[in-house]
């Protein structure tokens, strides 16, 4: 039993990694974008509320809404690392 | 009834906070105090209330204009709250705003009792609760108190109104009916158990506090008036401070009642007011302190739980306070009260 397991382990090591590096980097960017999207959803709703009350808040609202976007830009760095 | 979708706290809270910060501050009240009723209407034209003042300006003037503009404005704002909210938030806001259903029902009863015209009654209603316009119109059009109670019996505030009507027939007094409406409103509010996080717990605590304060107020008023009334009849279930049996024994004994309030969880906020009440004997100041305590408690909740129903509640309470203050100033000036006297009537924070 233990023998087979060790053998399987050896075979797995010999194969290529389950996720190739470029795919992992793509995943990282994708997850970061998802996170930013979730964060932006309530910030966006809140800024729409604020803008509806007072149009002069448009600039502030816009800046706060896209703030989580910096996360995606940082995550983009992983693409250049692999 | 629109309880679909998920609660959109972020949107509603952002709008509500903006409106909360646009409410009148001490500076504005001081300006208002320096004007006459006509001046107040002109001043209000340049504020929040501008649209209502212009709309109603052709039909009314003086203090009536201010009064109707305030009613129309508060209805507009609270309707907005319902229009914006979705899902859970809508439920929570709507059940709180049923307060205005109770208010409207009582206004109609009083109107019919005092034989006011339909138009007069309709102008005094605040169209902010769950009752829609057609239902309000049918209430106003009802020709007797009995017809009104029949209409109300099927609504959310109708519980127990039929028994109260029987009592009304005996005594010819509106008190039992008004009482039944208040009770049905609060008991329904406190009776439903809500499930949710800490914010919901605090929301319930806030409602408890409102009920407790109302019970306190009733007990103190009965004690003060010395009338031979059973306080348990006015007691509203659902608070945390008293139960019906206790209120009966406490209402007869003011020192014990005050000691009880002092020991309770509201003791700290109200201690100054209780001291005043003990020395100055002024119930009015104490009642204002209760109003103030509710507003500051709601504000506290809205800071601790920013994304919940609490900021909306805080806004509702603060807006009501503002409307009451403006009304007090306008009516006070009309009656020729001294400025200091009117100032004492205001609840500012």
Summarize this structure as a short list of keywords or feature phrases.
heterodimer; A: 82 residues; mainly alpha; 4 helices; B: 349 residues; 18 helices; globular
Q: Report the β-strand fraction of chain A as a percent range.
A: under 5%
Number of strands of chain A: 0
N- to C-terminal distance of chain B: 34 Å
- Low-confidence blocks of residues of chain B: none
Helix and strand composition category of chain B: mainly alpha
What is the tally of helical segments of chain B?
Answer: 18
Helix content of chain B: over 70%
Number of helices of chain A: 4
Radius of gyration of chain A: 22 Å
Q: Would you kindly provide a written description of the structure presented here, covering whatever features stand out?
A:
The complex is a heterodimer of chains A (82) and B (349). Helix content of chain A is 83%, strand content 0%. The longest helix of chain A is centred in the middle third of the chain and has 33 residues. Chain A has four helices and no strands. By secondary structure, chain A is mainly alpha-helical. Chain B is mainly α and 349 residues long. The longest helix of chain B has 28 residues. The interface between A and B is small, with 11 and 12 residues.
């Amino acid at each position: 039993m233990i023998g087979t397991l060790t053998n399987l382990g050896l075979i797995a090591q010999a194969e290529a990694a389950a996720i190739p590096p470029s795919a992992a980097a793509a995943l990282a960017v994708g997850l970061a974008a998802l996170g930013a999207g979730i964060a932006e959803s309530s910030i966006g709703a809140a800024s729409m509320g604020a803008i509806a009350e007072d149009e002069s808040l448009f600039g502030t609202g816009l800046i706060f809404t896209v703030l989580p976007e910096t996360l995606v830009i940082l995550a983009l760095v992983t693409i250049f690392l692999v | 009834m629109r309880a679909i979708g998920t609660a959109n706290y972020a949107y509603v809270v952002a709008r509500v906070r903006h409106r909360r910060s646009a409410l009148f501050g001490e500076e504005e009240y001081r300006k208002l105090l320096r004007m006459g009723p006509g001046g107040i209407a002109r001043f209000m034209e340049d504020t929040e209330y501008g649209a209502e003042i212009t709309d109603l300006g052709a039909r009314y003037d003086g203090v009536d204009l201010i009064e109707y503009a305030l009613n129309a404005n508060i209805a507009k704002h609270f309707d907005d709250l319902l229009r914006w909210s979705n899902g859970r938030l809508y439920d929570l806001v709507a059940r709180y705003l049923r307060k205005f259903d109770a208010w409207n029902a009582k206004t109609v009863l009083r109107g019919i009792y005092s034989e006011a015209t339909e138009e007069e009654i309709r102008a005094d209603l605040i169209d902010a609760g769950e009752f829609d316009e057609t239902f309000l119109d049918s209430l106003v059009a009802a020709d007797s108190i009995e017809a009104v109670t029949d209409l109300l019996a099927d609504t959310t505030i109708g519980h127990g109104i039929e028994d109260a009507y029987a009592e009304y027939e005996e005594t010819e007094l509106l008190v039992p009916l008004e009482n039944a409406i208040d009770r049905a409103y609060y008991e329904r509010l406190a009776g439903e158990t809500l499930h949710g996080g800490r914010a919901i717990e605090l929301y319930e605590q806030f409602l408890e506090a409102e009920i407790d304060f109302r019970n306190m107020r009733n007990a103190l008023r009965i004690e003060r008036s010395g009338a031979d009334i059973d306080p348990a009849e006015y007691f509203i279930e659902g608070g945390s401070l008293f139960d019906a049996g206790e209120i009966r024994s406490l209402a007869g004994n003011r020192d014990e009642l005050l000691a009880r309030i002092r020991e309770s969880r509201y003791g700290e906020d109200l201690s100054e007011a209780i001291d005043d009440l003990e020395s100055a004997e002024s119930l009015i100041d104490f009642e204002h302190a209760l109003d103030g305590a509710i507003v500051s408690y709601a504000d506290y909740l809205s800071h601790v739980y920013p994304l919940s129903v609490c900021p909306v509640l805080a806004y509702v309470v603060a807006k009501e306070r503002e409307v009451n203050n403006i009304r007090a100033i306008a009516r006070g000036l009309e009656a020729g009260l001294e400025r200091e006297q009117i100032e004492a009537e205001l609840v500012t924070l």
